[in-house]
Task: inverse folding
């Protein structure tokens, strides 16, 4: 009876981690595709220049693939070190994610993000920062906004009353030097936050699915680890 339960648990663990691994492959594939097709679209951040959407997806996909692979091998071989490693990694990920959900943390992240984005404006149009420059141009054009908290953020960058041409209601060369009445005045930070809030249901569904997957992986790996310990103790 115990052997049958152990076999069922092992097959479930292998199946689950195979799905986990395939999900990681999918995320990694999307990240590579973005990196190849959107190479110039880099991050808006100045302190984390390598934290683009593509690099983030590649990193997340790789981590998920590694955990899924370790879980599959650990389940097949009933290896306690591998099962414990999977459990520890999943617990660490879940703990880190849960701390971000606290209101105080969200407020701090919000303030830090705005400050960091304003620093990134100083690199706009400079040599070696074509990715950041293109990113700001795309964001301002698509969201019809200008600057981080206000279009006047650009005044400090140029030391003059002007904005990038991507801030203009109707794009034309050097339109950022014209009348302020021809510029977008909505802050990009608030526009992007508003877009995220409009898609909050989809984001929550994704977050809940990800959390459920991680919790199930943690439960499976810990249960199988405990069962292997019991079996070894019983036959010792």
Result:
């Amino acid at each position: 009876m115990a052997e049958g339960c152990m076999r069922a648990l092992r097959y479930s663990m292998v199946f689950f981690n195979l799905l986990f691994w395939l999900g990681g492959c999918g995320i990694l594939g999307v990240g590579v595709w973005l990196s190849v097709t959107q190479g110039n679209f880099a991050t808006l951040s100045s302190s984390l220049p390598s934290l683009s959407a593509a690099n983030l997806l590649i990193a997340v996909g790789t981590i998920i693939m590694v955990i899924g692979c370790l879980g599959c091998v650990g389940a097949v071989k009933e290896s306690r070190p591998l099962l414990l490693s999977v459990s520890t990694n999943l617990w660490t990920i879940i703990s880190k994610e849960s701390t971000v959900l606290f209101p105080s943390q969200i407020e701090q992240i919000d303030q830090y993000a705005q400050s960091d984005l304003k620093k990134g404006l100083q690199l706009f149009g400079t040599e070696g920062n074509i990715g950041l420059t293109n990113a700001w141009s795309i964001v301002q054009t698509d969201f019809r906004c200008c600057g981080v908290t206000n279009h006047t953020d650009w005044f400090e960058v140029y030391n003059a009353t002007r904005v990038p041409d991507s801030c203009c209601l109707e794009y034309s060369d050097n339109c950022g030097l014209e009348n302020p009445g021809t510029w977008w005045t909505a802050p990009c930070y608030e526009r992007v936050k508003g877009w995220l809030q409009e898609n909050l249901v989809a984001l929550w569904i994704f977050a809940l699915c990800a959390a459920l997957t991680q919790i199930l992986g943690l439960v499976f790996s810990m249960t199988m680890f405990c069962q292997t310990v019991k079996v070894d103790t019983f036959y010792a």
In short: The longest helix spans residues 2-37.
